[in-house]
């Protein structure tokens, strides 16, 4: 994940599976084969109704209501991963309202950074761009799997089944620890062209999405850890805080020793 290794959708099928495009090439048949054999994506709306519950809790850190201006999407490459505790990781991320070549250039650059850093997912704030854009590819390899792009994503429903997983993050190099998350969820978003869609994610893709979705709300993966799990990486987080201070000459904008535990419900609010 930035999640430590985008879905191009144009329509919504009757089973809430979008048509997937890989840089313009239709991949619907391959997506359907994956969903049937590997169970990565659920394809039954009846199953969705049985296993999912609606989102009621409002996230403590909600999305910004501000809309990104053209200048918010401009950048000079190459972009680089920013590391904890850079304040851009906690900043509000603006909604994207313009779907043009500038956005496509940003998405392409984000994929380049993700693959270069051996990630399977990346959110825009992790490269210093505070806009609501995420990309991921569960395969983690260019030319394999599906490249997934979600703009202005929201979670509509999530499963009651909570599972732990040893997560890493590109903004926390070398840091890994267990995070508990729902195993499945139903997401709505816009694709690279601005078309709205809804998709049901299960298993590893759902895990990657939730990790990147948290980033878009200014939530970091250690915010979701129990105190016991957090203690296992506390020294590594302190080392990153010290590294930031030495590099910038500024005091760390946050310190793990005085962090306030965020409730488990954070990250599943629909705004």
Structure, explained:
The protein is α+β, with helices and mostly antiparallel strands. The chain has one domain: Peptide Deformylase (Alpha-Beta Complex), CATH 3.90.45.10. The protein is 24% helix and 25% strand. It has six helices and eleven strands. The strands form three sheets. Strands 4, 5, 6, 7, 10 and 11 form a six-stranded antiparallel beta sheet that branches. Strands 1-2-3 form a three-stranded antiparallel beta sheet. A two-stranded antiparallel ribbon has the order 8-9. The protein is globular and about 45 Å long. It comes from Erythranthe guttata. Its EC number is 3.5.1.88. InterPro entries: Peptide_deformylase, Peptide_deformylase_sf. One of its GO terms (cellular component) is chloroplast. Belongs to the polypeptide deformylase family.
Sum this structure up briefly.
The chain has one domain (8-258): Peptide Deformylase. 24% of the residues lie in helices and 25% in strands. The chain has six helices and eleven strands.
- How many domains make up the 3D coordinates? 1
Total strand segments: 11
CATH topology: Peptide Deformylase
Give the overall average pLDDT: 80
Low-confidence parts, pLDDT < 50 over ≥5 residues? 5-50, 55-62, 261-271
Find the CATH superfamily.
Peptide deformylase
Q: At the first level of CATH, what is the class? A: Alpha Beta
Function: Removes the formyl group from the N-terminal Met of newly synthesized proteins.
Main location: plastid
Catalytic activity: N-terminal N-formyl-L-methionyl-[peptide] + H2O = N-terminal L-methionyl-[peptide] + formate
Family: Belongs to the polypeptide deformylase family.
């Amino acid at each position: 994940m930035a999640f430590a290794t985008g879905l191009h959708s144009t329509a919504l099928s009757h089973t809430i599976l979008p048509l997937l495009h890989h840089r313009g090439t239709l991949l619907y048949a391959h997506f359907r084969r994956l969903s049937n054999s590997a169970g990565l994506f659920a394809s039954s709306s009846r199953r969705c109704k049985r296993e999912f519950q609606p989102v009621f809790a409002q996230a403590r850190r909600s999305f910004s209501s501000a809309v990104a201006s053209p200048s918010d999407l401009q950048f000079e490459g190459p972009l680089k991963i920013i590391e904890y505790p850079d304040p851009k990781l906690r900043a509000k991320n603006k909604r994207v309202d313009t779907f043009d070549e500038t956005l496509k250039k940003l998405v392409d650059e984000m994929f380049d950074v993700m693959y270069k850093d051996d990630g399977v997912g990346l959110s825009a704030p992790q490269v210093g761009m505070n806009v609501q854009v995420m990309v991921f590819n569960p395969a983690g390899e260019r030319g394999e799997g599906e490249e997934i792009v979600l703009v202005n994503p929201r979670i509509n429903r999530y499963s009651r089944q909570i599972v732990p997983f040893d997560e890493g993050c590109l903004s926390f190099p070398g840091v890994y620890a267990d995070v508990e998350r729902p195993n499945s969820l139903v997401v709505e978003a816009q694709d690279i062209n601005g078309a709205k869609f809804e998709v049901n994610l299960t298993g590893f893709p759902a895990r990657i999405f939730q990790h990147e979705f948290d980033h878009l709300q200014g939530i970091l993966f250690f915010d979701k850890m129990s105190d016991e799990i957090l203690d296992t990486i506390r020294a590594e987080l302190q080392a990153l805080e010290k590294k930031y201070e030495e590099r910038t000459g500024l005091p760390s904008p946050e310190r793990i020793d005085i962090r306030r535990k965020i409730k488990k419900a954070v990250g599943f609010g629909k705004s």
